[in-house]
Amino acid sequence: MEPKRRPRGMSANSETLNKLHGQIKALRAQLAQAKATIARLSRGNQPPLLPSPAAGLMSHRFDSLSPRERNIARLFLEYPCDKAVARRLGTKPQTVRNQITSILKKLGVDSREELVIFMLAVRPGRDGA
């Protein structure tokens, strides 16, 4: 009996399948790592953030904001979405957007991401100060 011949392109298909299996294994490893990270963070085992040496200067800049702007900045840290902050304050998202733009200018930061970093470094309390 003669061995069966493979149709043309069969070796290319098996190579493609092997590549796909390798990619699937890599993705499964990444998924497992991500799940482990999420589980660790949800348990609260992440290392604590240390206060920044410039936190005093940053705190002074934060204190220069009006009480309303401080409240919006705090809420933005909790809910980084204009709509969510607006709902909490009972205003329109456009109003919150405008106020955040004003806050960015007063604090000397260039983006919303920098505002979040600034707020994490300052860690203001909820007492309006």
Number of strands: 0
Mean pLDDT across every amino acid position: 78
N- to C-terminal separation? 90 Å
Which spans have pLDDT < 50 for at least 5 consecutive residues?
none
The secondary structure category is mainly alpha
Count of discrete alpha- or pi-helical segments spanning 4 or more residues: 6
Cα gyration radius (Å): 26 Å
Q: Tell me about the largest β-sheet.
A: none
SSE string: HHHHHH
Portion in strands:
under 5%
Rough outline: elongated
The share of residues in helices is 55-70%
Description of the structure:
This protein has 129 residues and is an all-alpha fold. Helix content is 69%, strand content 0%.
Entry summary:
It contains six helices and no strands.
Strand-helix topology:
Blueprint: H1 10-43, H2 55-63, H3 67-78, H4 82-89, H5 93-107, H6 112-122
Helix pairs in contact: 3-5, 3-6, 4-5
Please tag this protein with its features.
mainly alpha, elongated, about 0% strand, 6 helices, about 70% helix, about 130 residues
